[in-house]
Amino acid sequence: MLNAPGNKLLLGQHFGYADEQTQWSYWGPSGKRGGLAHPALRGAVQLRNAAAAMCALDCLREKLPLGMQEIRRGLAEVTLPARFQVLPGRPQIILDVAHNPQAAQVLADNLASSGFAPDTIAVCGMLRDKDAAGVLRTLAPRITRWHLASLAGARGATADELARHLDAPLERFDSPAGAFAAALSRANENDKIVVFGSFLTVGEVMEWLKNNKTSKR
């Protein structure tokens, strides 16, 4: 649903999209646009997001006129760090701040469509006031091994607290950086490492990667 001046526009009723394998098409208040390249952001949900963005531009076209060249460029160059951000190299490293069951479901769906990996190692640290049980339960079918990290501060959940919600192979670590370093040292080149659960978790791992560029194979 999109709020527009004076009314509400609904996905599937007032605007929408069609996935056409190698490209996609959009329809909305200003008509249909076809032959669009898929957004640079990964995941099936991104077509829905792109359609909503294009519908917003349709509604604002009198105040913010943009040509299709600018729209195509925006779709091709858009970046959103830590939202199913896939880093280059092997093993594949995926950063996603998913910290609630809804975001975890999107991450699980994206993992399901991202290709096979012998092992998918989760590096997870969460805040205590989040629905850790819901997040971990949602992602459990996509994870083969868990590296649980304690987060610092009064709001940070401990690795032991997270472990109570899992019945799967897991290890506990004092920090996201330690959990990630261990995952990277044990992963084979065809495996996946998925870092999620909090901005704090992803941020610490991003900082570790920045300071240890030669450690990633």
Rounded Rg: 20 Å
Order of helices and strands: EEEEEHHEEHEHEHEHEH
Task: Give the helix tally.
Answer: 7
Major sheet details: 6 strands, mixed
Terminal CA distance: 43 Å
Tell me the strand order in the biggest sheet.
6-7-11-8-9-10
The CATH class assignment of the largest domain is Alpha Beta
**Range of strand content:** 15-25%
Count of distinct strands:
11
Stretches where pLDDT is under 50 for at least 5 consecutive residues are none
Overall form:
elongated
CATH superfamily of the largest domain: Mur ligase, C-terminal domain
Instruction: Report the helical percentage.
Output: 25-40%
Number of domains: 2
- Output mean pLDDT: 91
By CATH, the architecture of the largest domain is named Alpha-Beta Complex
CATH T-level fold name of the largest domain: Protein-Tyrosine Phosphatase, Chain A
Q: Determine the structural class based on helices, strands and strand pairing.
A: alpha/beta
